[in-house]
From TrEMBL:
This is 5-methyltetrahydropteroyltriglutamate--homocysteine S-methyltransferase. One of its GO terms (biological process) is methylation. The keyword Nucleus does not apply. The keyword Transmembrane does not apply. Binds 2 Zn(2+) ions per subunit. HAMAP family: Meth_synth (MF_00172). Belongs to the vitamin-B12 independent methionine synthase family.
Length: 765
């Protein structure tokens, strides 16, 4: 019985690639140094899977940024502004598309389906010319083969690539990137020909858009694409991989009708309805790559249950055509439990990171083949039983409080317009008030202080003094820049979710459980293993300290319940919304303590609210109902004069704008600049928004410093569709990943642009 892994984490067990990328970007190392780190990591990954007994090992899943950008490079679909003149795309052009450079902005970045991973959105136009411009897929295949590992090269499928693309700026609205299908297929044919010539026997096309609600012409594109590729694919085994959700019946029918395709990969962890489709009819002679091991969470698989599922599928597809697989790429989980030497032993026994999931996949394959490791399965069953019976998982008081939430919508008593009037009388802010999103640059010295405090190398007093000094510096900088509503810069926080999880019950943390978010950006998601509560105040001490340093309003900075949920590894033994309500009650206590401590502006970030939206439209309403309700729970008890902000970033918000309004926040700051100001289109189309709103005026994920004129132009575009008295001026997101040499001039230009437009508005009156 064969085994397969959809994809594997790239950063390395100790984030080796992250540090190599940042060293290269800072000019401290060469392209050769970077490639050496990458080569070593790839070799280690392939060897690990081969040693574990995996038959179908992926290649070309390693990336310096993301797999969609890699495909853009392969196709030579470089926007004109990067002045690429053809030939093999180099790292300078590649990273300019991802991060921008001194003269041109980066391409848009958005979330990869409903994950916290991001991708660079291709910009296409009728005039886009395609050419085979990155040989990464063939190079990695040959690299693995030289090491004695015959891999399955993985490509982003042609139809999903186009469906994930956007029309370039200035292109007619009627243009659809899907119309370019016949233009990109010749490049795919070249890639396929090279892989065949190099000896590849399998090829994997990732077509995850098949799990979405597709129109008939989009489904027809899959049929057309793979019919056109059929002759090129002759002699190859072709796997089309889907993941993250059920495949709708129409999409299943289309996919399983593709004559050029040998095998189909399905997520059977999140796709239980797909399982029923398979059982009701599967094409004879085809392979089923059954994704039974969860690639998106860190819980040990229920091996007995997965084995039973696989055994039921054997009768449908045939023993020799069933391949055990992960539900999706393992890049969405942490790398290896071996690195977690300080994790609680009981909780550790409940977990499986990427390395352990590889072993689980192979153990299931061997069990199907009659070589069941009884001791391994028994240990798994014991760990699952331990988790079910552990008293640390359940808190009856928390469960009762969450149950009592039913029957109320938890709205504030007055309208947002009345609240804004009351807040303005108290805060006395100017027109177009300026603020930032929360964090300021995390310097090497600041990270050292936090690291030494955690290691108990410095005392609590020394730590407190160091953080106090950093807050004072950040407050002084903002006052000198003349920003209106200040932040304390979050120097005590390494991560916006980790910080809160460390202070909430029901959470545990890893030392090296890093997961890639985008580029070199890694996060270390908390693990929610039990019921959640807040034993003590979490931010009140620092917020009160920061407010005492200035007469200007100081925002209290919190992460909202939906974002904490979506950016954690969440317990899978109860519905997600129940866990979210528990977190909301914990944050509610913190909000009320901040208000009692004299904090007049409180920001409750819901950066990941859109990210958690299910991929199928039929499931949207239920999710948005409990997600928005969770946010309202956090602040339903504050006074009208307390201004509640929220922040969202890097997703497409236009289709959930009514739910955003329904959150009933006083002010929302939201990503806007990197997505070509798509957000503003909803207001041009007549959506009425009465609360305060700050669409981001510049992209903080790029080192590029925007000019005052550029920012002023953006603000004027906003004023064309939004009332002057509700508009705020702010960056797209927090500033922790930037350097002060970038932050200070960018914020200077932002404030000067706001002042310039205030003066123009006053003169016009």
């Amino acid at each position: 019985m064969a085994s397969h892994i959809v994809g594997y984490p790239r950063m390395g067990p100790k984030r080796e690639l992250k540090f190599a990328l940042e060293s290269f970007w800072d000019g401290k190392s060469s392209a050769e140094d970077l490639e050496k780190v990458a080569t070593d990591l790839r070799a280690s990954i392939w060897k690990q899977m081969a040693d574990a007994g995996i038959k179908y090992i992926p290649s070309n899943t390693f990336s310096y940024y993301d797999q969609v950008l890699d495909t853009t490079a392969m196709l030579g679909a470089v926007p004109d502004r990067y002045s690429w003149t053809g030939g093999e795309i180099n790292l300078s052009t590649y990273f300019s598309m991802a991060r921008g450079n001194a003269t041109v902005p980066a391409m848009e970045m958005t979330k990869w389906f409903d994950t916290n991973y991001h991708f660079i959105v291709p910009e296409l136009a009728p005039s886009t010319k395609f050419s085979y411009s990155s040989h990464k897929a063939i190079n990695e295949y040959k690299e693995a083969k030289a090491l004695g590992v015959d891999t399955v090269p993985v490509l982003v499928g042609p139809v999903s690539y186009l469906l994930l693309s956007k029309a370039a700026k200035g292109v007619e609205k009627s243009f659809s990137p899907l119309s370019l299908l016949s233009s990109i297929l010749p490049v795919y044919k070249e890639v396929i020909a090279e892989l065949k010539a190099a000896g590849a026997s399998w090829i994997q096309f990732d077509e995850p858009t098949l799990v979405k609600d597709l129109e008939s012409h989009q489904l027809s594109a899959f049929s057309a694409a793979y019919a056109e590729l059929e002759s090129a694919l002759s002699g190859l085994n072709v796997l089309v991989e889907t993941y993250f959700a059920d495949v709708p019946a129409d999409s299943y029918k289309t996919l399983t009708s593709l004559s050029s395709v040998t095998a189909y990969g399905f997520d059977l962890e999140r796709g239980t309805k797909t399982l029923e489709l398979v059982k009701s009819g599967f094409p004879a002679g085809k392979y089923l790559f059954a994704g039974v091991v969860d690639g998106r969470n860190i819980w040990a698989d229920d091996l007995a249950a997965s084995l039973a599922t696989l055994q039921s599928l054997e009768a449908v597809v045939g023993k020799d055509k069933l391949v055990v697989s992960t539900s999706c790429s393992l890049m969405h989980t942490a790398v290896d439990l071996v690195n977690e030497t300080k994790l609680d032993d009981e909780i550790k026994s409940w977990l499986a990171f990427a390395a352990q999931k590889v072993v689980e996949v192979n153990a299931l394959a061997k069990a199907l083949a009659g070589q069941k490791d009884e001791a391994y399965f028994a240990a798994n069953a014991a760990a699952l039983a331990s988790r079910r019976s552990s008293p640390r998982v359940t808190n009856e008081e928390v469960q009762k409080a969450a149950t009592a939430l039913k029957g109320s919508d938890h709205r504030r008593a007055t309208t947002v317009s009345a609240r804004l009037d009351a807040q303005q009388k108290k805060l006395n802010l100017p027109v177009l008030p300026t603020t930032t999103i929360g964090s300021f640059p995390q310097t090497v010295e600041l990270r050292r202080v936090r690291r030494e405090y955690k290691a108990k190398k410095i005392s609590e007093e020394e730590y407190t003094n160091a953080i106090k000094e950093e807050i004072s510096k950040v407050v002084k900088i903002q006052e000198e820049l003349d920003i209106d509503v200040l932040v304390h810069g979050e120097p005590e926080r390494n991560d916006m979710v980790e910080y809160f999880g460390e202070q909430l019950s029901g959470f545990t943390f890893t030392a090296n459980g890093w997961v890639q978010s985008y580029g070199s950006r890694c996060v270390k998601p908390p693990i929610i293993y039990g019921d959640v509560s807040r034993p003590n105040p979490m931010t009140v001490f620092w917020s009160k300290m920061a407010q005492s340093m200035t007469a200007r309003p100081m925002k209290g900075m919190l992460t909202g319940p939906v974002t904490i949920l979506n950016w954690s590894f969440v317990r899978n033994d109860q519905p997600r919304f129940e866990t979210c309500y528990q977190i909301a009650l914990a944050i509610k206590k913190e909000v009320e303590d901040l208000e009692a401590g004299g904090i007049q502006v409180i920001q409750i970030d819901e950066a990941a609210l859109r990210e958690g939206l299910p991929l199928r439209k039929s499931e949207h309403a239920f999710y948005l109902d409990w997600a928005v309700h969770s946010f309202r729970i956090t602040n339903c008890g504050v006074q009208d004069t307390t201004q509640i902000h929220t922040h969202m970033c890097y997703s497409n918000f236009n289709d959930i704008i009514q739910s955003i309004i329904n959150m009933d926040a006083d002010v929302i700051t939201i990503e806007n600049s990197r997505s070509d100001e798509k957000l503003l289109s909803v207001f041009r189309e007549g959506v009425v928004y009465g609360a305060g709103i700050g669409p981001g005026v510049y992209d903080i994920h790029s080192p590029r410093i925007p000019s005052k004129e550029e920012i002023a132009d953006r603000v004027n575009k906003m004023l064309a569709v939004l009332d002057t008295n509700i508009l705020w001026v702010n960056p797209d997101c927090g500033l922790k990943t930037r350097k002060y040499a970038e932050v200070k001039p960018a914020l200077t230009n932002m404030v000067e642009a706001a002042k310039q437009i205030r003066a123009e508005l006053a003169k016009a009156q």
